């Protein structure tokens, strides 16, 4: 009796498996590996649904990947090492196209030529490796200066346009607020921990001061210059004065925690903090706004380019359909939905004039120039060694911020390290 | 066990020479039966190990189609080369004497960056020291790795020592008779039961560098610091902090192992000692400690080898600020994709751990009965 039951069960399972296998054989299955931060997963599933409605012969599956970019890269590398066809479309960070180019198809061969002009040229340039478009931009990011409207008004100050103005305003507000009874108040919070985020922040400081971008796009090491050293010393002087001593251990979310509790006058962060700062439970709802980051000697502020792209695996069994899915997800209509629902910055220029998008994110239109002029990290020029370049850079900057080394020594050593690693020549920014 | 039997009996040899057909057949059968075990062992242990050994002599890039070259011992040279150079003093041209820093009053020496060799591989400054009025600099080709070895070994020695002493104390308390002993034993194990990554994250929140963090709040209330202590980014207190976290986490494990050893000691010995008039302290040193030695040795070996492989608390709490050997290995493989170099690191870690294991067996006599 028992044996009979087991047999039945096994048979049922076998038929069940065969059944689904048959059903799937009729459809082409495309798997996309996307992020799951905030609403990202939900948005991807909905987009997949829309694609399937238009293409009944394709099934689009969404694979959830780790939140932290480093962990996600670790997972992707394992797929690539095994030349796995498991995943067809990968969501990749803006700094990865150079490093991972060999694993992706050239999207120009799959109809991307018609759409590239719609996107930000800086992103297209970033995703082009040896003339091949290895990824299509999906959403973008750039560093912004968050400021408290109410406090600037209270102390009769303008939105700072230079680092000098920012330092002054931060000091005035910090002193005033502390006297008014908030001992935890700080002038300026940012990302000072030793990780990729510090590379972004420090690149903004240095570029805004005319110090170049560590390594120039034409493969010259430009970091050892007086403007860069001066700016790093300035940043180190913020620690413990207008910024908390703990800023050297802070990442995006630590800075946001202080800011959103109403304990900071200024914050450097990505656009995602905008909708969260205006959420119901936020202490500063409606009290803040965003502006471009301050300028240094160059006279212009600089914002580091961030964001995510979609790339199609070379090991995919159906690269044509996978590329079609990627281009669909990165299309005007889809990016519009993501911008409105998830406050994710589009990479298509025209969307910054779209009234529905602007209604949901009023600052998109005003800061269009910031997004379009964002400074790229030297990931394409140094590929496939960008990650180590960045690690050497943020560790050198961190040693200056902690006071372990002076900026001159740290930058000199960094220059030698970069020479050893890349073999590039020394140049001027 | 096995080797002892062989030496004492010496019988297998005899039977061999007597060419007993039955014994030979049995021997063959024994080898045939052992064969699957050997194959499985080779597959799961020796193959990956051999693969790592082989890769450590190449410049393989992880997840890349680039050609791999055999480069001999280059990875090891890059990881382990160390040099010591004397720093020449800076001479003031006017007086002919050594220049002195006007601010600190210290004698000035040439900067290490100018003295350390640059070719064929560059040496980076590890540390400086003075000896007989001369100043020296130690340079290493891979400063991060040498520091990682140093960090890991000092972490291991201090944390294991603290855990053993604390664990022994807790185990002695647990071993005595009192009400609620069962509940105490269960609750004691909680820190060890929590997954390391999870508890490391919790510690990270508690160690936050502002008054959001638990410790900054408490310390400020107690008058220590200003509520803005940076526990994890300040190089001088990061490692001690990490050791405290590890002691919190692993002391229960030590206590448990030692407690098991304590319970093996027959009560009657203590009763006899009491009759003989031995004081509790005398009892501890003459009975408890000697009889506890085997279990203590096992616990020490376990913990030391485990601590040398430490990865998760370093990775979660310090990430790329300070490496342990294992977290540096992880960075070189995943972050830097240098698979050849990462394999060499793996081999070096293996050798270091192996060295510690052998040392322990010799010192504590773990392998003798």
Automatic annotation (TrEMBL), chain A:
Signal peptide (UniProt feature, chain positions): 1-23
Pfam families from the UniProt entry: SBP_bac_1
Keywords, alphabetical: Signal, Transport
InterPro entries attached to this UniProt entry: Bact_solute-bd_prot1 (IPR050490), SBP (IPR006059)
Cross-referenced SUPFAM superfamilies: Periplasmic binding protein-like II
Stated family: Belongs to the bacterial solute-binding protein 1 family.
Protein name: ABC transporter substrate-binding protein
